[in-house]
Amino acid sequence: MEKKAKALVLLSGGLDSRLALMMMKDQLGKENVEAVHFVLPFEGCSHRKKEVIQFAKQHGIKIYILNCMEGQLLKEYIKILRHPKFGRGTALNPCIDCHIFLLKEAKKIARKIKADIVVTGEVIGERPMSQRRNILYLIEKESGLKGKLLRPLSAKLLPPTDAEKKGLIDRNKLEGIAGRQRKRQIELAEKYGISYPNPAGGCLLCYPDFCKKVLPVLKSRKNITGFDIELFKVGRHFENGNIILGKSKEENGKLEYISKKYKKGIIIIPNQPGPAALIRNWKYIRKAKELIKNYSKRTITSFDVVLYRTGKRTD
Ligand code: SF4
């Protein structure tokens, strides 16, 4: 094979996408492989981005980071979360639409870097909603990547891509993995000598309890920002997410940090150890103080109220 394809790999950081990247690097050389990582709003693991950058660097692969926690990408993501065209999984997770969204964004980068092919670590039948064979075809079509989307881990079970047909990618070096057993993936990880994170800390949209915090805010607020996204991940939520109580000293600090970072919300701190609260509006102050008292083991007699927007602090 003389001329080689140029590939853009979607690198989530899990085992499958790491293997997809290694397989491409193996057959195309690192000069023909680049990667893109999406920082997703509802990711459970906060240090994933760092790990992914480190992995790409270690293997000499150029990586693009797209942050979906703000700006237009967040807007687009919230749009699909509110109205997924292809339904949801077990909770609020709009997996099929989410994959299509990511691939459409990846396609824009692929065009810029003149990549012949977009590559993912998807495996037929590994996930019930988004990785069934017919859904893989649907995702390919809806993302506008027909013939240009390679899933190297399952490629032998799927029709050849344009790059394979043109001889730019050697189909014989691709895999034919299907199902949830990860035996072959673990063998490949050993072959490539790569480590990988355990699958814990996945997408929070798959957890019904987490989604209970998200739903009322989605319904009541037109504009969801990074501030809302960060708040979903902290504390106990009351009054449709207008009052949030820290569940630990660490979470109290997190609420303050978020309020300071976005210059939004009002922080209420009790004079004894106990939960701090963030409220979105002054009208919730009385209720928040009551809740703090209810959730505190000590007797609270006064509160500090901090408004990071203005730096004002009152009793
Ligand atoms: S689990 Fe979450 S991140 Fe993964 S495809 Fe589904 S919605 Fe997207």
SSE diagram, text form:
Blueprint lengths: L6 E4 L4 H14 L4 E7 L8 H11 L3 E6 L3 H12 L12 H19 L3 E3 L13 H10 L6 E2 L11 H4 L17 H10 L15 H13 L5 H7 L3 E3 L4 E3 L3 H14 L3 E5 L6 E3 L5 H11 L7 E5 L4 E3 L1
Bound molecules: iron/sulfur cluster (SF4).
Iron/sulfur cluster binds next to helix 4.
Features:
315 residues, alpha/beta, Rossmann fold, 2 domains, six-stranded antiparallel sheet, five-stranded parallel sheet, 11 helices, 11 strands, 40% helix, binds iron/sulfur cluster
Short description:
With 315 residues, this protein is an alpha/beta fold. It has helices at 15-28, 48-58, 71-82, 95-113, 133-142, 162-165, 183-192, 208-220, 226-232, 249-262, 285-295, and strands at 7-10, 33-39, 62-67, 117-119, 149-150, 236-238, 243-245, 266-270, 277-279, 303-307, 312-314. The chain has 2 domains: 7-192, HUPs (Rossmann fold, 3-Layer(aba) Sandwich); 234-314, no CATH class.
Structure commentary:
With 315 residues, this protein is an alpha/beta fold. The protein has two domains: 7-192, 3-Layer(aba) Sandwich (Rossmann fold), CATH 3.40.50; 234-314, no CATH class. Helices cover 40% and strands 14% of the residues. The protein contains eleven helices and eleven strands. Strands 6-7-9-8-10-11 form a six-stranded antiparallel β-sheet, with helices on both faces. Strands 3-2-1-4-5 form a five-stranded parallel β-sheet, with helices on both faces. A hairpin with a 6-residue loop joins strand 8 (266-270) and strand 9. Helix 1 (15-28) packs across helix 7 (183-192) and helix 9 runs antiparallel to helix 10 (249-262). The radius of gyration is 23 Å and the shape is elongated. The relative contact order is 0.11. The model has no long low-confidence stretch (mean pLDDT 94). The structure holds iron/sulfur cluster (SF4). The site of iron/sulfur cluster has 10 residues, from helix 4.
